[in-house]
Amino acid sequence: MESTSAEHTVRVPAGSVTLDGNLSLPGGAGGIVLFAHGSGSSRHSPRNRYVARLLNEAKLATLLIDLLTQQEEAIDMRTAQLRFDIELLAERLVAATDWLTQQPETRHLRLGYFGASTGAGAALVAAAERPDVVGAVVSRGGRPDLAGPALERVKAPTLLIVGGNDSPVIELNWTALAQLRCEKQLVIIPGATHLFEEPGALDEVARLAREWFKRHLMVEVERATGAGTSSAKR
Fold first, then answer.
1. What pLDDT was estimated at residue 17?
2. Partners of 13 in the β-ladder
3. Residue 1 vs residues 52, 56, 211, 222, 233: alpha-carbon distances, Å
4. How wide is the angle at C-alpha 152 spanned by C-alphas 149 and 158, nearest 5°?
């Protein structure tokens, strides 16, 4: 079932910089998902945009945002250092979160994070900083271990999705899972590699993310409409 979604460009203040983002608001949205991209990626990532489109179809709004400015990305392309600056990325996510809670179009929506690669670590740090705002976290091929001590402070239900052939990242996710004190789950997609480029792999990521966010962000909407009793797990 498709729902009409209007995407427009936004500029989000974050400390001394302004971040560019793409905000999509489907009609009757019951929640919003803020994307935290991974190493060397951006809001134009085809994988994240694909997942975002499927979330929009499920009446979840999305904000894909560049966590680095153009100047910072140019530096990062040479040094690959800023993409691992989890503190900086988390600060930017918190700023975007606060911005969403102040906008008339989005302030009423429960918020979740979708983090990929190093962005997953930043998302978990930001979730620990805004426990009363962030209602769910999904990590795709992520590095949740990079959140460090913040893992124990995360309250948002957290889903970790890893490819079955991404062996080093699987171990890092198991380690992070053990440190989380919230509702949590680790799903390994058989045959998938780090970027989930295999046929059907990204579709499975999107399905898992959609169900997780619907469960934790849209519960009030579903109860009000009676939809909560009709959605079956697959």
1. 94
2. 18
3. 15, 10, 15, 16, 17
4. 115
Q: What is the DSSP letter of 106?
A: T
Distance CA 111, CA 102 (A): 13
Buried b / exposed e across 71-83, counting CB within 10 Å, b at 16+?
Answer: ebeeebeeeeebb
**Tokens of residue 58, six digits:** 């499920």
Question: What are the pLDDT digits (tens) for 145-200?
Answer: 999 999 999 999 999 999 999 999 999 999 999 999 999 999 999 999 998 999 99
| Residue ranges per structural domain of the chain | 5-220
Q: How far apart are CA 122 and CA 91, in angstroms?
A: 8
pLDDT of residue 70: 82
Q: How many CB atoms lie within 10 A of CB 11?
A: 10
Q: How many residues does the chain have?
A: 234
Please report which confidence band the pLDDT of residue 100 belongs to, taking 50, 70 and 90 as the band edges: very high
Is the pLDDT reported for residue 97 higher than 90? yes
Distance (Å, rounded) from C-alpha 79 to C-alpha 102? 35
For residue 172, the SS3 value is helix
User: Which amino acid, 49?
Assistant: R
Report the alpha-carbon distance of residue 101 to residue 116 in Å, rounded: 23
Tell me the CATH number for domain 5-220. Answer: 3.40.50.1820
pLDDT at 106 over 50: yes
Residue 105 · residue 5 · CB < 8 Å: no
CA distance 84 to 121: 9
